[in-house]
Amino acid sequence: MDYRLRKRDRIRSRKEIILLLKSGKRIENKEFKIILREREENSRIGVSVKKNIVNSVKRNRIRRVLKEIFRKNREKLKKDYDLFIIVKKDISSKTYHEIESAFFALLAKGKALKEC
């Protein structure tokens, strides 16, 4: 298993994001919203953190943590998905494990995780 997060593993173009926002399934909790859509191959991730939430250092930390959680755990997804995460409030003070558990709880709510 390749554990790198390559360019092909990220949603990068505005066109892809708009398509995902229009046709994706939405799941949310108080921390963030996940929009997901099935793909034929290769799960991908995109992360958006609003500028009014925190400063750039903390926004980038949030992005890095969410991408790392996805990178380490993408094989736990039922199928291949495009995931777009919109951070709704400041989660920079939370630990990696708190963010990870909130992320998994949200994916479980949307029935996107494999059964254990």
What do you see in this structure?
The chain is α+β, with helices and mostly antiparallel strands. The chain has a single domain, classed as Ribosomal Protein S5, domain 2 (2-Layer Sandwich), CATH 3.30.230. The chain is built from three helices and four strands; from the N terminus they run αβββαβα. It has a four-stranded mixed beta sheet, with helices on both faces. The protein is globular, with a radius of gyration of 13 Å. It starts with 13 loop residues before the first helix and ends in a 7-residue tail after the last helix. The mean pLDDT is about 90.
Q: Total number of helical segments? A: 3
Query: In CATH terms, what is the fold-level topology?
Result: Ribosomal Protein S5, domain 2
Distance between the termini: 19 Å
Total beta strands: 4
List keywords for this structure.
4-stranded mixed beta sheet, single chain, 4 strands, Ribosomal Protein S5, domain 2, globular, 116 residues, alpha+beta, 36% helix
Structure described in brief:
By secondary structure, the protein is α+β, with helices and mostly antiparallel strands. It has helices at residues 14-23, 56-73, 96-109, and strands at 25-28, 32-38, 44-49, 81-87. A 4-stranded mixed beta sheet has the order 1-2-4-3, with helices on both faces.
